[in-house]
Amino acid sequence: MAVALAVLAVIAFGLMFVYGNASFSPAGPSDGQAPTADVTGGMTRAAPLVGFPVTIPGALPDGWHPNSFTFTQAPGSNDQPPAVRAGWLTDQGRYITFVQSGGQLAQVQSAELGTVGSATGTEDVDGASWTVVPGRRSEVAWVRSVGDVIYLITGTAQPEDFRTLAAAVDNGTAATS
Predict the structure, then answer these.
(1) Which CATH number does 39-174 carry?
(2) Which residues are bridge partners to 141 per DSSP?
(3) Cα–Cα distance, 156 to 112 (Å, whole number)
(4) pLDDT computed for residue 2 by the predictor
(5) Among the listed ranges 57-61, 97-101, 115-119, which one has the minimum average pLDDT value?
(6) Higher per-residue pLDDT: 77 or 108
(7) CA atoms of 38 and 43, how far apart (whole Å)
(8) DSSP bridge pairs for 101
(9) Which of 44, 49, 126, 177 lies at 20 to 30 Å from 83 by C-alpha?
(10) How far apart, in whole angstroms, are the C-alpha atoms of residue 13 and residue 126?
(11) Which of the four pLDDT bands, split at 50, 70 and 90, describes residue 97?
């Protein structure tokens, strides 16, 4: 019985290595390559499904790497507001995410940040006022309402990166399907 278990273990570990779910690195972990996401394409494809106008941010710095995109359709049984989420790694390797939603402000904050925090300040970017609220963990978040759409920026990025993304959102274009 022990021999049979040993053979099964060898086969299982072999399959893990073959299919990329495990690796052997005796020198310790190495920096991997961050995944890449098609943020612009994702926003374009999500636009007709979420029920609100989706904005594709304008030009972002060349060193920013788009690495995540998700969206939530109109509310179902989970009562999540419809939302489009895009994330980038900045030049310094910090994460910043842009969320846009057709939900109510408190509903969006609760769904995206885990809580509805009180404003701790404001930031003005090219004449647009963003409200600063607490984010998840030790992060901050900037929120702004434009018509029926809530914009939210959060992450571990530097304040200047938040300003860069906020300006890109204001200089963005409407996603069309």
Answers:
(1) 3.30.200.100
(2) 133, 154
(3) 15
(4) 80
(5) 115-119
(6) 108
(7) 9
(8) 83, 150
(9) 126
(10) 55
(11) very high
Number of H helices, E strands in the chain: 4, 9
Q: Over 70: is that where the pLDDT of 18 sits? A: no
Closest CA to 151 of 114, 90, 108: 108
Single-letter residue type at 127: G
Q: Hey, what are 11's tokens?
A: 């086969």
Q: Give pLDDT tens digits for 35-47.
A: 888 999 999 999 9
Query: Domain boundaries in the chain?
Result: 39-174
AA identity, residue 24 = F
Type of residue at 3: V
Which region among 52-56, 83-87, 171-175 has the lowest average model confidence (pLDDT)? 171-175
Rg (CA), the chain: 20
User: Can you read off the two tokens belonging to residue 166?
Assistant: 């906020």
> What distance lies between CA 14 and its chain's CA centroid?
34
77 or 41, greater pLDDT = 41
Tell the burial category of 50 from Cβ atoms under 10 Å away from its Cβ (0-12, 13-18, 19+).
Answer: buried
Tokens of residue 127, six digits: 């004449």
According to DSSP, the residues that pair with 143 across neighbouring strands are 131, 152
